Amino acid sequence: MSNQQPSEQRLWGGRFTGASDPLMDLYNASLPYDQKMYAADIEGTRVYTMGLEKLGLITKEELSEIHRGLKLILAEWSEGKFVEKPGDEDIHTANERRLGELIGKNISGKVHTGRSRNDQVATDMRIYVREELTKLAGFLKSFIEVIIKRATKEIDVLMPGYTHLQRAQPIRWSHWLSMYATYFTEDYKRLLQIIERTNVSPLGSGALAGHPYGIDREFLAAELGFNGVIGNSLTAVSDRDFVVESMFWSSLFMNHISRFSEDLIIYSTGEFGFIKLADAYSTGSSLMPQKKNPDSLELLRGKSGRVFGSLAGFMMSIKSIPSTYNKDMQEDKEPLFDSLLTVEHSILIATGVISTLNIDAEKMEAALTMDMLATDLADYLVRKGVPFRETHHISGECVRTAEVEKLSGIDQLTMEQFKKIDARFEQDVFETFNFEQSVERRTATGGTAKSAVLKQLTNLQSQF
Ligand SMILES: *[C@@H]1O[C@H](CO)[C@@H](O)[C@H](O)[C@H]1NC(C)=O
Ligand SMILES: *[C@@H]1O[C@H](CO)[C@@H](O)[C@H](O)[C@H]1NC(C)=O
Fold first, then answer.
1. For the structural domain made of 19-108, what CATH number should be given?
2. How much is the pLDDT for 17?
3. Is 180 helix (H, G, I), strand (E, B) or coil?
4. CA angle, residues 435, 440, 445, in degrees to nearest 5
5. Contact 269 CB / ligand 1 (< 6 Å)
6. Percentages (nearest 5) of helix, strand, coil residues in the chain
7. Is the separation of the CB atoms in 147 and 356 below 8 Å?
8. Taking the domains of the chain in order of start, what are their residue ranges?
9. How much of the chain exceeds pLDDT 90, in percent?
10. Which residues face 171 on adjacent strands?
11. N or C: which terminus of the chain has fewer CB atoms within 10 Å of its end residue's CB?
């Protein structure tokens, strides 16, 4: 190379022995991780060469030779027999090099006509991502169905509902389950929208300016199962929003999984004792024989940080790169692949956890306390025509009196004590102190009454 300096003139010798820095080859190479996309890359080339044949840039015979070679390469990858060679920088160069070996460079050399690695990699990524997200949607659907099944089966169990982690009002255990099924169903719907937006074709955009031989991009898109083409060639090669959206989706989903796990961790403590994890998802302590640690749930909670970190990192990598392709964009792969794999495993682990844990219905119900019916007491007076602002105050007075008198709960106040606080209390006030009835009063849509929870579960089920 003309700009090569003689080694004695270099300011720093270091690793330089020849024309290149061997560390740079490693630093630059993406094959170790982008080989995951081997099938997408082969499919992209298979269809692209059909487009070339339609243009008369390759013959029918050459096309069938190319397709024969691609089939062989696909088999090599899927059987783990593909041999990587020095100079295979990424999955695209590796596949093209191998194709040359199999069918001869005279034909393989035509494959890349009018195509750039820029539209090639964008195409491969979109094919790969849409398939991974579709797989995740399937796992997520099964997870939600397990939650719905469990909620239907255990509809009769009551437990405390919490705000600020303080006992607030009695709810059904199934209402808690249905809450997460609702979150996860929204995640599912959001995922389908992202798949839709991912599924558009950049192929045929060249390096940036467009295809020089007028390739039929709509044909390529349809053959590759895309819903359409990206309408601007500069956008087509530079857009990684589908990667960002996939990682945002992963982060939000992991956030939900993390809260779900945190609840279950709390419910599994000795103090709560609402649930017991199956042995497969918990670990004994190495020192304290009595302990059973909820490792699975702690990992689900912890891995949410890693997935969000991937999103934040990639956003920083691309936030101010100039338009169209820049090598920074290669940094999309490792965080994305790691996020997708972490989410996939997390869904499967969470499905295992929720389908095998045991609940202790007696402990859940024993955790209900009469003070949790203070709102119901206020509602009792509302039904007698007293404005709620006033009844809230009166009910608070009852709670205070019970505390001052050191009673076990507001239900232990005598009729005289009630009357002293407010003359509008009558004998039927004692009917308020029933957890089942408290729950059953909440029949409005989305509430915790049995009929309302069952309706939620049916609605969720109908979305799939
Ligand atoms: C880096 O890899 C790309 C392929 O992704 C290749 O075209 C380029 O020559 C490599 N650059 C260096 C400096 O090794
Ligand atoms: C490849 O093309 C060159 C130049 O046209 C020709 O000399 C050579 O025989 C060809 N090789 C094969 C294997 O067809």
1. 1.10.275.10
2. 59
3. helix
4. 135
5. no
6. 65, 5, 30
7. no
8. 19-108, 117-366, 370-461
9. 92
10. 159
11. N
Cα(200)–Cα(126) distance, integer angstroms = 8
Does the pLDDT value for residue 3 go beyond 80? no
β-pairing, 292-293 vs 283-284, is: antiparallel
* Beta carbons of 448 and 172 less than 8 angstroms apart: yes
Q: What's the angle, vertex CA 453, arms to CA 452 and CA 458, rounded to 5?
A: 100
Taking the mean position of all CA atoms in its chain, how far away is CA 176?
20
pLDDT of 292 > 90? The answer is no
Find out whether 334 and 33 touch, Cβ atoms under 8 Å.
Answer: yes
**Ligand 2 pocket test: which of 59, 103, 106, 107 has the largest number of ligand atoms within 8 Å of its C-beta?**
106
Question: Which residues have a Cβ under 8 Å from the Cβ of 21 and sit 6 or more positions away?
Answer: 14, 15
| Six token digits for residue 273 | 């004792």
Separation in Å, CA 229 to CA 198, 314, 409, 448: 11, 25, 67, 47
Centre of ligand 2 from the C-alpha of residue 106, in Å: 6
List ligand 2's pocket residues with C-beta within 6 A.
104, 106
Among candidates 445, 397, 403, which has minimal Cα distance to 421? 397
Q: Which atom of ligand 2 is nearest to the CA of 104?
A: 13
DSSP state of 17: S
Encoding tokens for residue 446? 């989305």
Centroid of ligand 1 to alpha carbon of 428 (angstroms): 83
Would residue 310 be called left, alpha or beta, if left means φ above 0 and alpha means ψ between -120 and 50 degrees?
alpha
Q: Let me know how many helices (H) and strands (E) the chain has, helices first.
A: 19, 6
Residues with catalytic function: 164, 285
pLDDT at 437: 95
Range list of H helices, 319-429: 333-356, 361-366, 374-382, 388-404, 415-421
> In CATH terms, are 19-108 and 370-461 the same topology?
no
- Report d(CA 72, CA 80) in Å as an integer: 12
Residue 162 β-bridge partners: 167
Out of 3.10.20.310, 3.60.20.10, 1.10.40.30, 3.40.710.10, the CATH code matching 370-461 is: 1.10.40.30
Using a 10 angstrom Cβ sphere, with 0-12 exposed, 13-18 middle and 19 or more buried, the burial of residue 433 is middle
What CATH number belongs to 117-366? Answer: 1.20.200.10
pLDDT tens string 397-410: 999 999 999 999 99
Residues recorded for the chain? 464
State the pLDDT at residue 2.
44
Q: Helix, strand or coil for residue 115? A: coil
Q: What pLDDT is stored for residue 80 in this prediction? A: 97
From the CB of 89, is ligand 1 less than 6 Å away? yes
Rg of the chain over Cα atoms, rounded to whole angstroms, equals 31
| pTM over cut 0.90 | yes
Contact 49, 125 (CB under 8 A): no
